[in-house]
Specification:
Blueprint (H helix, E strand, L loop, with lengths): L1 H29 L8 H9 L4 H18 L16 H15 L59 E3 L6 E3 H7 L4 H10 L9 H4 L7 H13 L10 H16 L5 H14 L9 H16 L2 H7 L2 H14 L6 E3 H10 L30 H11 L4 E3 H14 L14
Antiparallel strand pairs: 1-2, 3-4
């Protein structure tokens, strides 16, 4: 009996081997070229255990893909869905740069020699952000600039260019290699960084980096709903349409005639060269500052100011406060606030011109008009008392708006 069972087992074993050999031969016929790994092998590698379920699923997908590729009129790599359009892809990349605060990809960037850009984390609101800040009027902070380049951390004395807002310093070569500044912007930095006009580094110039993740997400969603395309210019009608939508969303009403006039005045302030359109980043910075102005308290904005900005505000206030009693008039405060927007023409830049000049904006300023000049004269007679603490809180948003190197006025005084 034992011998009969043994022979039966041998027969069954031979039959199984025949089936395996037959399957192996059939597999060789359909096997792809050895140069490329089959989808079955990739799935097995991903599963890690080479399970039969993973192999069967991979074979099924491979067969379906092969059938699709073998259809008449279809290319080998063609899928059922068409590839994304180039403009859509560029749009997505623009939104990504916008979200990460990287700005526009420079055209002249040498990828082979590009330095690694620093990691950036958006700020987070603190519990005490809205609490009053003690900024003494008589105590100048006089911050000292860093000794080494922010990028390469090397000291080379006069070859370092300081930021007028923070204490960072940079080599022009490091900024060029990182791709943060265009050739024109680099030249402007070389001409102004060591003058009293000054230059804002890429951290301080981009005021959008002051927004938290939540604030930035809200702004991006508004842009998308209004079909605002990143890195594109806007004309006055588009800005009006955008403002109508935002007002409708926030307050469930339309813009009044006075508010429309304010929007057009802001458009003129953002278009200092009178080209009939505003640049993307001027619009972007204006909207970022508007978010800060609407959703942050004045105390919170004062906390954002750097030591250099606080010292400059002290100098302006003390130059107005002739009797040194710590109080100025509302009209004098208005003059000081407009002084932050005084942009120096490139032709007239020199060390003798101060960016903290106290006085009304010039006749050629984009925000200057006959109605505004008459209004400013009326405000000069406003004798309401303003303390140093109130002056700093009211002026904080205008000080932040003066950070960008652009000649546009990103937040203007209301009509």
């Amino acid at each position: 009996m034992g011998v009969l069972m043994s022979k039966k087992q041998q027969v069954e074993k031979v039959q199984k081997c025949s089936v395996v050999v037959s399957a192996f031969k059939d597999g060789l016929k359909d096997r792809a070229a050895p140069a490329a790994a089959s989808p079955t092998e990739e799935v097995i590698a991903e599963n890690g255990d080479g399970s039969a379920d993973g192999s069967h699923q991979a074979n099924k997908e491979h067969t379906e893909q092969k059938d699709k590729d073998s259809k008449p009129g279809s290319l080998p790599n063609q899928q059922a869905s068409a590839p994304p359009r180039e403009d859509h892809k560029a749009n997505q990349e623009a939104w990504g740069r916008l979200r990460d605060g990287k700005g526009v990809e420079p055209e002249d960037l040498k990828k082979a020699h590009q330095l690694i850009p620093p990691a950036f984390m958006r700020p987070k609101r603190e519990v005490n952000d809205d609490q009053p800040v003690d900024v003494p009027l008589g105590q100048r902070e006089q911050p000292v600039n860093d000794e080494m380049c922010e990028v390469c951390e090397v000291w080379t004395a006069d070859d370092l260019f300081p930021c007028r807002t923070c204490t960072r310093v940079f080599h022009d070569g490091c900024l060029r290699e990182m791709g943060y500044l265009s050739t024109e912007a680099l030249q402007e930095m070389r001409e102004t960084a060591h003058t009293t006009t000054g230059w804002s580094c890429y951290y301080c110039d981009n005021v959008n980096l002051l927004l938290t993740e939540e604030e930035m997400y809200s702004l991006m969603e508004t842009f998308k709903q209004c079909k605002i395309i990143p890195e594109s210019c806007l004309v006055s009608d588009e800005l009006l349409q955008y403002r109508h939508f935002v007002t409708k969303q926030l307050f469930e009403r339309d813009l009044t005639d006075e508010e429309e006039e304010e929007v057009l005045a802001q458009f003129a302030a953002l278009d200092p060269d009178k080209k009939g359109q505003i640049e993307w980043f001027d619009f972007f910075y204006h909207e970022s500052l508007s978010v800060l102005q609407k959703f942050r308290s004045e105390n919170s904005l004062v906390r954002i100011l750097t030591a250099k900005e606080r010292d400059r505000a002290r100098a302006i206030f003390q130059s107005i406060d002739q009797d040194k009693d710590g109080i100025i008039t509302a009209g004098e405060a208005r003059k000081a606030q407009t002084s932050w927007f005084h942009k120096i023409n490139k032709e007239s830049q020199s060390c003798s011109v101060s960016i903290s000049h106290v006085g009304p904006i010039s006749e050629s300023s984009p925000a200057s008009s006959s109605s505004e000049r008459s209004r400013d004269k009326a405000l000069e007679n406003d004798n309401r008392p303003v303390t140093w603490e109130n002056f700093l809180m009211e002026s904080a948003i205008y000080i932040l708006a003066a950070r960008p190197n652009s000649s546009a006025m990103h937040i203007r005084l209301p009509l």
